[in-house]
Specification:
single chain, 194 residues, alpha+beta, seven-stranded antiparallel sheet, two-stranded antiparallel ribbon, 4 helices, 9 strands, disordered N terminus, Lipoprotein
Length: 194
């Protein structure tokens, strides 16, 4: 199984279509994460968005890609539940003016499903089958809270695990309007409340 840190670069890719990079200061902390042993009850994801955009309820997922030697790649998606309690959001940097931060954890049922998947991968490794697991955060469903033109739409993504013990930036200050394909896709986002 690959170390989680190696595939964390793809966390932003799932959300931001491959645009952006992990801040250099985050790499040593992310390198300590081990997908085989990390405590899933402590896994947290936070997305900082301009107030013009909001994630829709149920729209943030943890996507997992597994590959066992000699078998087809398998994809699974796990629901992330928004956390509103301040104690669960502790350690997140304050959102800049005009932005909001949304924090998530795995639902208990999906944490159990993920644990079963992880145990299966470890068992296959014990049986001599090489495998890998890649994780990515996917904010798949947004709504538009504002139709006023924006000069930029900066986004940040944070991750916390049992190894990092607090939120580590995975992507920081990525401007959604800076990528023509993404900027064009933003025009089709429905207003919130619809």
């Amino acid at each position: 199984m690959n170390r989680l840190a190696r595939v964390l670069v793809s966390a932003a890719a799932f959300m931001l279509a491959g645009c952006g990079s992990v801040p250099l200061t985050s790499i040593p902390r992310l390198a300590r994460i081990d997908a085989r042993t990390t405590d899933l009850s402590m896994l947290r994801v936070a997305v900082q968005l301009p107030d013009a955009l909001r994630p829709r309820s149920g729209g943030v997922k943890l996507d997992v890609v597994t590959k066992v030697a000699g078998e087809a790649e398998a994809r699974s998606s796990f629901a992330m539940l928004e956390m509103s309690e301040a104690r669960e959001r502790g350690g997140l940097p304050a959102a800049p003016q005009g932005s909001s931060t949304y924090a998530y954890r795995l639902s208990p049922g999906d944490a159990a499903r993920f644990e079963a998947l992880r145990a299966s991968m470890v068992e296959q490794g014990k049986n001599g089958k090489r495998g890998s697991m890649g994780l990515g955060v996917a904010a798949k469903e947004f709504c538009r809270a504002s139709i006023a033109p924006q000069a930029s739409l900066p986004v940040a993504i944070y991750l916390m695990t049992s190894e990092t013990k607090n939120f580590v930036p995975v992507v920081r200050d990525f401007d959604l309007l800076g990528d023509p394909a993404m900027a064009g896709g933003l025009e089709s986002i429905q207003p919130c409340g619809q």
